[in-house]
Write a structure and sequence with these properties.
The protein has helices spanning about 55-60, 95-105, 125-130, and strands at about 15-20, 25-40, 45-50, 70, 75-80, 90-95. It has about 130 residues and is mainly beta.
């Protein structure tokens, strides 16, 4: 069960799950600080202060990306990033409804192969073959 972004409000308390050591999934606490709407084109981010498992000292750690966060037992999203040099463990959480919207989106168009030889700045192998001989 998921919670729409429109229902996520500052002050809500939740829990997240991540692996901090080994293979054991452990919980951490999350307090919703707010939502940045249109943080990127058609994208929003949920801001949350995380607590527990030493996060108060370390901040958001590498490897937490993708950690699910729940409020009232409903999935609101997944940890996406932390803020460098932050004095508090503030996380940016990608809303679940944005992730689910990608599921139905068309795939990116395939790229066409590049015909060889590829030239950069108009200089090919022939033009450069004698340039560095001593």
């Amino acid at each position: 069960m998921t919670m729409p972004l429109s229902q996520v409000k500052p002050g809500m308390k939740g829990r997240g799950k991540s692996v901090f050591q080994g293979r054991t999934v452990e919980e951490f606490e999350a307090e919703i600080l707010g939502v940045l709407v249109n943080n990127a084109p058609k994208r929003s981010v949920i801001l949350a202060r995380l607590k527990g498992k030493g996060l108060e000292a370390t901040g958001i750690i590498q490897g937490m990306s993708g950690s699910p966060v729940y409020v009232d037992g409903k999935l609101i999203g997944a940890v996406a990033y932390g803020f460098s040099f932050s004095k508090e463990p503030i996380a940016g959480i990608t809303p679940i409804e944005e992730m689910l919207a990608v599921d139905g989106a068309p795939a990116a168009p395939r790229t066409a192969p590049v015909a060889a030889p590829a030239l950069r700045d108009g200089l090919g192998q022939e033009e450069l073959s004698g340039a560095f001989r001593t």
